[in-house]
Design goal:
This protein has 191 residues and is α/β, with parallel strands linked by helices. It contains seven helices and six strands; from the N terminus they run αβαβαβαββαβαα. It has a single domain (2-190), classed as 3-Layer(aba) Sandwich (Alpha/beta knot).
């Protein structure tokens, strides 16, 4: 656990702006955990709230810190308050390739709903738009694939800038470690 915590990134996060499909949301969260992204943000309005697909998450949600918001403005405001730049995914070759953007400061990757893309609020708040390079006839990735590719690129670029595998403070690592231990102990107790 301590080894994994030493490779966690707090300075790259993802915002899922009104994704509807529990499979896609679950796949993105799983990619976050795999790439060592510690925080995620999900805009999930409506009475149903956030639904995950346990067959897809494979338990990754217990290793992540993620927040759920009822609307995009409250999510964007919370992320902005913590100092992130907002890089909004846009499957348009006229936008810069994600590889070319600046990763010297914390970055939040914003990915939009399966059919509509990102909300007008997210577009208006963007510090930059980006695309992931494509070479075929098909004009877009599935959102969970776009997220995985984006998270891979962003986490690699941020780690290169930091010259470190992770950036959680020692205090944050200890706090998360204690929470993980308590969670694992409770799971074993329940059996």
């Amino acid at each position: 656990m301590r080894s994994v915590l030493g490779r966690r990134l707090a300075s790259v996060t993802v915002i899922l702006d009104h994704l509807q499909d529990p499979h896609n949301i679950s796949a993105v969260l799983r990619s976050c955990e795999i790439f060592g992204i510690h925080y995620a943000h999900v805009v999930s309005p409506g009475p149903a709230g956030l639904r995950l697909n346990p067959a897809v998450t494979c338990g990754c949600e217990r290793w992540l810190d993620f927040s759920v918001y009822p609307d995009t403005p409250s999510c964007l405001a919370a992320v902005r308050r913590t100092g992130y730049r907002l890089y909004v995914a846009q499957p348009d070759a006229a936008s810069p390739d994600l590889e070319s953007l600046d990763f010297s400061k914390p970055v939040a990757l914003v990915l939009g709903a399966e059919l509509r893309g990102v909300s007008p609020e997210a577009r208006a708040a963007a510090d930059a738009f980006y695309h992931v390079e494509m070479h075929g006839f098909t004009q877009s990735f599935n959102v969970s694939v776009a997220a995985a590719l984006s998270l891979y690129i962003a986490s690699r670029k941020r780690r290169m800038h930091l010259a470190s595998a992770g950036d959680l403070s020692a205090e944050e690592q200890e706090k998360v470690f204690q929470r993980w231990i308590a969670d694992q102990t409770e799971r074993r107790r329940k059996g």
